[in-house]
Amino acid sequence: MFVGLDEHGVSRHGHKRSIYTEGKSYRGNIESSDPRYSFHWVGSTERLYVFEAPIDMLSYISLHPENWQEHSYVSLCGTAEHAMLWMLGQYAQLDEVVICLDNDDAGIKATERLTAILQEHGYGNIEIDRSEAKDWNDELVNACEAESTMIMRLE
Hints:
Layout: E1 2-5, E2 11-17, E3 27-29, E4 40-41, E5 47-51, H1 54-63, E6 72-75, H2 82-90, E7 96-99, H3 105-120, E8 125-128, H4 136-154
Parallel strand pairs: 5-6, 5-7, 7-8
Antiparallel strand pairs: 1-2, 2-3, 4-6
Helix pairs in contact: 1-4
């Protein structure tokens, strides 16, 4: 369960994800969750990283751990812009957006749509960071498997 808090520390959003490996996994938002308050982290720099899912956000941080606490991160729990726009509206220091959505048709289309929305709202400093795998969690799994293989070869 990933919980999103509002500016007062009150839980306003819940996202469930199962880790069942014998079939289809489950993920989804808790009914009555406010999409603006999705799972996020607020740092001190001007940079906001945007992800489709909390697990991708955490995977990205695992792959790029250097000074991660300084930056801000938000999971959209889908591809809607609500949580991203809420973060940008709440935290004035955020003026640089890095879109890190999935490397699939839905993620690529959503990246284009979010880029247009950001430009309409006056944000010009937009980057796209796309994983080589389908998403950042798969990228992390691949990196861990590669590291494990390398360690086994060294032994």
